[in-house]
Amino acid sequence: MLEKWKNDIKNIALKSIPKRKGNLWMTTWVSHLEISLNNYLCSGVWYLEFQKIISQNHSITQRLVAYFLVRKVIDETFRGNFHENRNVQEHADPTLTPRKIITLNQAESQKFSYIIGWVLFKLLKRDYAMNSHPKFRVMHTLLESLCEEKVEYTIETRSQTTNIIPGPEFTQFMYYLESLVIDLFKKHNELGPNILHYVKNSLLSNSSLNQMFITILKSSTDVELGDEECGFIYERCITIYMRS
Predict the structure, then answer these.
(1) 44 in the Ramachandran plot: left (φ > 0), alpha (ψ -120 to 50) or beta?
(2) Domain identity same for 65 and 119
(3) Residues 141 and 60 in one domain
(4) Which residue segment(s) compose the domain that 137 sits in?
(5) Does the structure show a pLDDT above 90 at 166?
(6) Is 195 helix (H, G, I), strand (E, B) or coil?
(7) Looking at the domain assignment, is residue 91 inside a domain?
(8) Mean pLDDT, rounded, for 71-100
(9) Average pLDDT, the chain
(10) How many CB atoms lie within 10 A of CB 124?
């Protein structure tokens, strides 16, 4: 049963791949995949298969057990085991450069700008790993210099919304990153669901992308930060982007 669930989830991942592989390709695929997985969970097909194995009457506890099981299968499917991750890591090319830098139309540019702002927002305000780092205040100062923060107040609801507007240097870095992602995703037929591991590992180990990030970060202010700490921010940036 668990193996069938795993195969079903892999098929969902493959069917979610956009037929048109244009700009923001990964963002589109992740969005399609999230919707498809939610539809799969809501369908209850997995629970019917669970009931056939258990052969017991329906109960809330039983359904909860089945739900936790299928969620675990989803997590393990996209995490992969040690050997799969090691093989994907070995496939990563640290010297890869994008064939061309993407150009976006106005609608795509606005969408991507929002994604970039969200990455910065998470780094500055909502990432536990960042917030708990002993040098977070210095990191925060450096990241703040790469963007502009605007707070909008709504009188009717007495609420406020924080918008992060990325600066040109960080935006240029993210365009370079997205251009790399498009090239990396061309291995999706070969790697299947492991493509996300491959893309993330390739971005983390990419020397030119890493150096570009460190250069932008260190040139933003007079505040000094070591390469190790810059590398930490880089890892968090890539991780957050892959989840956005």
Answers:
(1) left
(2) no
(3) no
(4) 106-243
(5) yes
(6) helix
(7) no
(8) 68
(9) 82
(10) 20
With CA atoms as reference, report the closest residue to 113 among 186, 202, 178, 206.
Answer: 178
User: What is the token pair recorded at 130?
Assistant: 């960042």
Distances in Å between the Cα of 74 and the Cα atoms of 9, 67, 132, 159, 193 are 7, 11, 29, 36, 11
DSSP 124: I
- Scan for tokens 């990030």, then name that residue: 213
Say what the pTM is: 0.67
- Asked if 61 and 114 sit in the same domain, the reply is no
The last residue of a domain, from among 79, 95, 118 = 79
pLDDT for 83: 42
The total of structural domains in the chain comes to: 2
Pair 56, 129 in one domain: no
Q: Are 26 and 185 in contact (CB under 8 A)?
A: yes
In tens, the pLDDT along 185-203 reads: 887 777 766 777 888 889 9
Which 8-state DSSP code applies to residue 186?
G
How far apart CA 112 and CA 109 sit, in angstroms, is 5
Distance CA 234, CA 207 (A): 12
* pLDDT tens string 105-146: 888 899 899 999 999 999 999 899 999 999 999 999 999 999
Please tell me the distance from the alpha carbon of residue 82 to that of residue 2, in angstroms, as a whole number.
Answer: 19
Helix axes 195-205, 207-219, angle to 10 degrees: 50
* Same-domain status, 28 and 120: no
- Amino acid residing at 96: L
